[in-house]
């Protein structure tokens, strides 16, 4: 009789790698600290010490907290979000942030996904958005997954393609379609914490590899 050990045919679950990109434009509805605290709490809930992460925030120059992947321990997360709290700018730097994220993944083994948080509306126009989409396609040849949380509450509208687009909606719809990540937003009244949780959960399962 064949004796089967429990879990013998179950693949070990390997660690996750999450790169978090935080972009912020000064807003009367959401402070930088609210965004940082909500994301920090989500990391504490969902990342395990055996997982790896890094954090890049918009600033001048951009702040890449660690030069390589680090374990998602409580101490490392605390340090990372302290740095984010002191360095995150009040203005959006979205193109450079995306470029830095792709560059980090390229030089760090080519594994892992990005979780992008943004609340600006600077790419509300068709022409600027298409230029950035094309440049990201040229950079992201490895097709890293980009999960997106748009948390702006001040709506700016543009009309093209026979419909209205709000804030960076056109840009993010295209990036999520190209690279497979979910696009989550708060403009319909969804709480910031819920939106971050959905975006985080969308990215995390795909990181097991």
Shape: globular
The CA-CA distance between the termini, in Å, is 34 Å
- Percent of residues in β-strands: 15-25%
How many beta-strand segments? 9
Describe the structure concisely for a colleague:
This protein is an alpha/beta fold and 209 residues long. The protein is built from 6 helices and 9 strands. Strand 2 (52-57) and strand 3 (63-64) form a beta hairpin.
What does this protein structure show overall?
The protein is an alpha/beta fold and 209 residues long. It contains six helices and nine strands; from the N terminus they run βαβββααβαβββαβα. The strands form two sheets. Strands 1, 2, 3, 4, 5, 6 and 9 form a seven-stranded mixed beta sheet that branches. The protein has a two-stranded antiparallel sheet with strand order 7-8. Strand 1, helix 1 (32-46) and strand 2 (52-57) form a beta-alpha-beta unit. Helix 1 packs across helix 6. It is globular, with a radius of gyration of 18 Å.
Attribute tags:
single chain; 209 residues; alpha/beta; two-stranded antiparallel sheet; 6 helices; 38% helix; globular; disordered N terminus
């Amino acid at each position: 009789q064949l004796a089967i050990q429990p879990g013998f045919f179950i693949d070990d679950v390997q660690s996750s790698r999450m790169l978090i990109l935080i972009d912020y434009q000064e807003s009367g509805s959401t402070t930088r600290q609210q965004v940082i605290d909500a994301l920090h709490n989500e990391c504490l809930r969902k990342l395990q010490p055996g997982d790896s992460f890094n954090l890049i925030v918009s600033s001048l120059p951009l702040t890449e907290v660690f030069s390589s992947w680090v374990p998602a321990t409580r101490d490392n997360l605390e340090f990372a979000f302290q740095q984010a709290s002191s360095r995150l700018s009040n203005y959006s730097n979205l193109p450079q942030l995306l470029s830095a994220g792709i560059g980090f993944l390229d030089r760090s083994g080519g594994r892992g996904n990005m979780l992008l948080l943004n609340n600006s509306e600077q790419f509300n126009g068709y022409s600027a958005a298409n230029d950035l989409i094309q440049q990201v396609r040229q950079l992201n040849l490895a097709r890293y997954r980009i999960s997106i949380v748009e948390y702006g509450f001040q709506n700016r509208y543009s009309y093209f393609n026979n419909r209205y687009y709000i804030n960076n909606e056109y840009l993010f719809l295209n990036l999520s379609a190209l690279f497979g990540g979910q696009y989550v937003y708060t403009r319909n009244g969804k709480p910031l914490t819920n939106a971050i949780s959905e975006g985080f959960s969308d990215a995390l399962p795909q990181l097991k590899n």
